[in-house]
Amino acid sequence: MTTFVTQSEELIICDLSCVNPVQQFCNSCQVGLCGDCINKHVDSLKSIKHDIVPFIKRTIELVFSQCTSHPNQRSEAHCKQCDVPVCIKCVVGPRHKGHDIEDMADIVAKKKEKIKKETEEMEKIISKNIECDANAEEKLSKSLTYNSDLAKQAEDQRKIWHLEVDNIFDIFDSLIQSIQDEEIKILKSYQSELRSQNSLMNQTVHENKDILKSNNASDVNDHKSKLNRGVIEVPDIKQLPLITKADQGKQLCIEFREYKATMTLTTLPRLRDAKEIANIPTNLTKLAKVACIKSGKAWISGKDEKIQCVDIHGTVQDTVTSTCFDFPTDIAVNKQGELIYSDYINRTVNIIRHNPMITIPQGWHPMGLCCTRSDDILVSTKTTDNCHCKIVLYQGQSVIQEINQDEHGNPIYQGGSYEVFVTENNNGDIVASDLNAKAVVVVDRTGKVRFRYNDKPPTGQEPFSPRQIATDSMGHIIVADPDNACLHILDQNGQFIKCVDDCGLNEWPTGLSVDSEGRLWVGSYNSGELKVIQYI
């Protein structure tokens, strides 16, 4: 129905293509009419009985089309066999007699319901598309910012590398100049000695010639030879070449005497589709912690005081009983291959078959453990009341660093009942899995926060639930996310790379460690199985 809008109000105007306000309504035809158009409407459709009422008393009904076979009749039904609209005369007539007839109002009601559901579904899709578009826009913005920063870092590195190359060739220039100066010195000294010898010998030659001309016996008899050396040999100068080798796109090498500089382009290992290469059953209930021992073996622990060492074939190599009242909070392996575990209740960090290495101060308890590349120990600790958490770096039994507040004095890690796991990355970053905050928190070696990661996986339904955490030789950060039955793999700058959500990880993966061959060892909490996954 057409409307005419003024500045002061909205008027409903006649449906017969005029601009007069509507006054009447034809219930039969479902059109609004002004006073001038009533007769015009009735005269145009004389075959139909028109129910003209005041507009405010109108009745909104279905408008049926006029039957093509019977004038003055409306098609209020539909012949399903002929698939055409029909009127009452058509239904009882010979053409459609005995056919399956459906009421047009029922058809319209069903189709309207279908259209309604379709519309609602489309509105949901539109809403989801808007959300996805906003998400894509946010990721686009992050991508632009990240890659812009990456390009700036690369440009900064270009300058550093150029400076390093300049320094290398400055060394070669200095070495060549030094060799030249030394050779000049040797040859000049040789020339000076040679000329001095010639001068003395010329003088002697003159004296000898005078004696030869003399008839004085004493002059000849008194002569003493001054020929005490022969010709002085020219010093041998070894002129070594500047050796260069170039394997295009792979390696550049320059060498001169004892100095050598090489620049190599190395292709790093790349991530590939994850593949389960071993599934090791264990007798542990609630397998929660995994710590690899180089290649082919790992320490594992569950919800009791036992800690076992198993190989990739499932053979138990060793079993130790911890001092823990219930179970070790975390386990790790140091550079010497020794097992270390944290005892929450007794507030100690222990090395197997030794006295406690570290005693945590009163009021604090140890949780996650990591042995660093320098063989120090990172320990995440929290207070007895679960209100505060911090990461402490120990050298022996001495505290050398505490990480608990950012530059604004705010807590870096969130207090709570869950454990905080910790590891060290190749670049010296300290990576923590903070389930209380549902985030991975990464700080640099000075304790300054670099980034936080808390995204759920692309196919995940539950919020991010980080448990044990590990890093590999390429600087990747791998996080166990049992609520979503997957592992997150990030780069060292916190950018999501991929999600490992197959390989039978539906039994709540929690324990996580990387062996020396770059394989993931994943402990399944519910099944007690230990899976070894190849992903590089």
Give an account of the 3D structure:
The protein has 536 residues and is α+β, with helices and mostly antiparallel strands. The chain has 4 domains: 3-107, Classic Zinc Finger (Double Stranded RNA Binding Domain, 2-Layer Sandwich), CATH 3.30.160.60; 122-230; 237-267, no CATH class; 275-534, Neuraminidase (6 Propeller), CATH 2.120.10. The protein has helices spanning 38-44, 88-92, 104-213, 217-221, and strands spanning 3-5, 10-12, 24-26, 31-33, 52-54, 77-79, 84-86, 101-103, 243-247, 251-256, 259-264, 275-281, 289-292, 297-301, 306-311, 316-321, 330-333, 339-343, 348-351, 356-359, 364-371, 377-383, 389-395, 398-403, 420-424, 430-434, 439-443, 449-453, 469-471, 477-481, 486-490, 496-500, 509-514, 520-524, 529-534. It has a 4-stranded antiparallel sheet with strand order 12-35-34-33, with no helix packed on it. Strands 13-14-15-16 form a 4-stranded antiparallel sheet, with no helix packed on it. Strands 17-18-19-20 form a 4-stranded antiparallel sheet, with no helix packed on it. A hairpin with a 4-residue loop joins strand 1 (3-5) and strand 2 (10-12). The longest helix has 110 residues, at 104-213. Residues 1-9 have low confidence and may be disordered.
